[in-house]
Amino acid sequence: MSGADSLSPAARRLCDAMAAAFPGPGDAAALRAAAAGSPGGAAVASVRDAVADGVPVRVYDPAPGAEGRPLTVFFHGGGWVMCGLDSHDALCRSLAAASGTVVVSADYRLAPEHPWPAAPDDALTVLLWARARAAELGCDPARLVVAGDSSGGNLAAVTALRAPGLVAGQLLFYPPLDASASSTGSPSVSEFAEGHFHTAAHMAWYWDQYGGDPDHPHVSPLRAPDLSGLPRTLLVLADCDILRDEGLAYGRRLGGAGVDCAVHLVPGVFHGFLGLPLPASAAAIGAAGAWLAATAAT
């Protein structure tokens, strides 16, 4: 089956429309304008902005006054170059509503103005801030999960590597995990490099803006020598995505290291599908919410 035929008809229509309106790589300002987004989505009882030791955050609480719940720290995607609290507001609302967890969304510093390690350092700062305030948020600090989509999934994986004893789970939506993978010619890169919204050229440019040593595990988690200390993991991958194969490789490595890892490979969709009006998106968010709700204490 050809790459063009791999998407569902509804996904193909959305993909083509999005690709037509999205700038090519090279202009951070244009990309940011195209991906800015606006807040709004599922109703959540309490949504407030705060500052986590210098990093802006947004806190979503679906049931104020509850206690002992899991706490989810979320990192948004956007190639480490674009997006923020507003662009991912709807997704965070959906995750909070589907899981019953408090979600803390981090507005980390962006490249190229703030290259690696600014983003992962901000991510760790927010994790530590949220954990220290878990009780006042009505959560159990031992039920702390890191989550993120795309480049935010990379930051979640890196944060879990940096603080494995503090994290009870990691929820990774189609993350980039190896800085050289988009140029290696894996089957998913070869098949979906173009024509599926998120291109290999975009991914290579994002990595260039982000910087850091590609061999460093806090840049490329797939290259970490030892994954055995990581927490339970859910990987949600799009089948028609250049990042699919590195996500599958990470899942295999986690399983081989004895980590409780589940992989949800969603057919017929492309990178970024979670924010789209597709049945597969609602199903994936519902399943991720149930997984988050089941997070046990470390």
Characteristic terms for this protein:
8-stranded mixed beta sheet; 298 residues; alpha/beta
Characterization of this structure:
- With 298 residues, this protein is of the alpha/beta class.
- It has helices at 3-6, 9-21, 28-34, 89-99, 118-132, 151-162, 187-192, 200-210, 244-256, 279-293; strands spanning 46-52, 55-61, 69-75, 102-106, 139-149, 169-173, 232-240, 261-270.
- It has an eight-stranded mixed beta sheet with strand order 1-2-4-3-5-6-7-8, sandwiched between helices.
- The chain is 36% helix and 20% strand.
- Helix 9 (244-256) links the parallel strand 7 and strand 8 (261-270).
- The N and C termini lie far apart (44 Å).
Summarize the model shown.
The protein is α/β, with parallel strands linked by helices.
Rough shape? globular
The overall pLDDT average reads 96
Spatial ordering of strands, largest sheet = 1-2-4-3-5-6-7-8
Radius of gyration: 18 Å
Distance between the termini: 44 Å
